[in-house]
Specification:
- With about 260 residues, this protein is mainly α.
- Helices cover about 60% and strands about 0% of the residues.
- A two-stranded parallel ribbon has the order 1-2.
- It is globular and about 50 Å long.
- The N and C termini lie far apart (about 60 Å).
């Protein structure tokens, strides 16, 4: 018998959208860039977070986004954004609650995306990928809209990784016979726990450090470079804060081109 299409309960989908809207509004309200955001800007950012993950999920699945087939999605996203903005001062004092809120939002979007993909016959690995895109998609759109570096591309507390682990647990549980709703609950719980622990204990993936330091210095010019002949004596070494390179190292080699 063919597995029926997974239908996310409306209340659960709206809950994810509302929590995402609040989380996005809190982020936007605390933004202190070159230009501060007005009510409309905060509402737009909150709506992007609240609805972005679901839209990305459904586009990848080749279906009409569920968030555009019901009036309540947009109403919920905008309303939650305004609530988050108006109560930002209160939420700022509830740091633990905000961490938990962020983790739950990631878990819900990731789990819903993976579960819906699996129920639509998508293989396990692509389903996990779709769930991860749904989990982080809203934040990527937010960062691009606000002209910020995309957060998941830089060293920081586990975010996409938490979603991938939770989505993997969901997919495996479903594959071994667990009902998809129960598997989704497992995925949400695991993603939430990993994300919270990563923030509390400042856990992150190892930073990429295998680039040759001399080559980076030459290509970026971020580190002062002087040749050995420029220094009066070896006693000055360690006082310049620069990388000391042989005279010919600053000349590009064929292999560097």
């Amino acid at each position: 018998m063919t597995e029926p299409l997974f239908v996310i309960p409306l209340w659960a989908d709206l809950l994810a959208v509302g929590l995402g809207g609040i989380q996005g509004a809190l982020f936007a309200s605390g933004f202190r860039g070159r230009a501060r955001l007005d009510f409309l800007g905060v509402a737009i950012i909150g709506t992007m977070i609240g609805m972005g993950g679901g839209i990305i999920r459904d586009i990848l699945l080749g279906t009409t986004p569920a968030t555009l087939q019901n009036n309540w999605y947009l109403v919920t996203a905008v309303g939650a954004s305004l609530v988050g903005m108006l109560l930002a001062g209160i939420f700022d004092r509830l740091n633990r609650a905000i961490i938990m809120l962020d983790a739950v939002v990631i878990g819900m979007f990731g789990a819903f995306g993976t579960a819906k993909a699996l129920a639509n016959g998508i293989p396990v690995i692509p389903a996990i990928f779709i769930g991860a895109c749904a989990a982080v998609g809203g934040s990527v759109v937010r960062d691009i809209a606000m002209g910020l570096p995309v957060a998941i591309m830089h060293v920081g507390s586990l975010y996409a990784v938490a979603a991938v682990v939770g989505n993997t647990a969901l997919a495996l549980s479903f594959t071994f016979g667990m009902p998809i709703a129960a598997a989704a609950a497992v995925g949400i719980a695991l993603t939430t726990v990993i994300r919270v622990l990563a923030v509390v204990f400042d856990l992150s993936l190892p930073e990429q450090r295998r680039l040759n330091r001399r080559r980076v210095a030459l290509e970026t010019r971020e580190i002062p470079i002087v040749s050995a002949s420029d220094l009066p004596s070896a006693s000055d070494l360690g006082q310049t804060g620069a990388i000391i390179l042989p005279d010919d190292i600053t000349k590009p080699r064929d292999e560097d081109v």
